[in-house]
Amino acid sequence: MSQDNQPQGDREQEDSDGTRAIWTKRANKLLLGRKIVKVEYMPVKESDDMMWDYQPVCFLLDNGSWIYPMKDDEGNDGGVLAVGQDMLPVLRGDK
């Protein structure tokens, strides 16, 4: 993504097997048109239950689903979230 949040280049060359299109379709189905109704950092107890060291910022959607960034797709820890030129960091412990 460019700084103005527009895709860069020709994505078709990067997606010869259709993986990007499949996941983009899934992401659109889960997120497009949803409204964020609450924003809060993950409670320490919840991150402890997940065996995470860090607490990311979390979003509650109007359909009851929570969105929270993770370190990787295996869910090994909470992750930071880039918002344009800003960043929402992870918190650690009770700090």
Description:
- With 95 residues, the chain is of the alpha+beta class.
- The chain contains three helices and seven strands; from the N terminus they run ααβαββββββ.
- The strands form three sheets. A three-stranded antiparallel beta sheet has the order 1-3-4, with no helix packed on it.
- The longest helix has 13 residues, at 19-31.
- The protein is globular, with a radius of gyration of 16 Å.
Mean pLDDT: 87
Overall geometry:
globular
Radius of gyration: 16 Å
Largest sheet: 3 strands, antiparallel
What pattern of helices and strands is seen along the backbone?
HHEHEEEEEE
Structural class: alpha+beta
State the end-to-end distance.
32 Å
Q: Which parts are unreliable, with pLDDT below 50 for 5 consecutive residues or more?
A: none
List the helices and strands and how they pair.
Layout (H helix, E strand, L loop, with lengths): L10 H4 L4 H13 L4 E6 L2 H6 L4 E2 L1 E5 L4 E2 L13 E3 L2 E3 L2 E2 L3
Antiparallel strand pairs: 1-3, 2-7, 3-4, 5-6
Q: Could you write a compact summary of the structure shown?
A:
By secondary structure, this protein is α+β, with helices and mostly antiparallel strands. The protein has helices at residues 11-14, 19-31, 44-49; strands at residues 36-41, 54-55, 57-61, 66-67, 81-83, 86-88, 91-92.
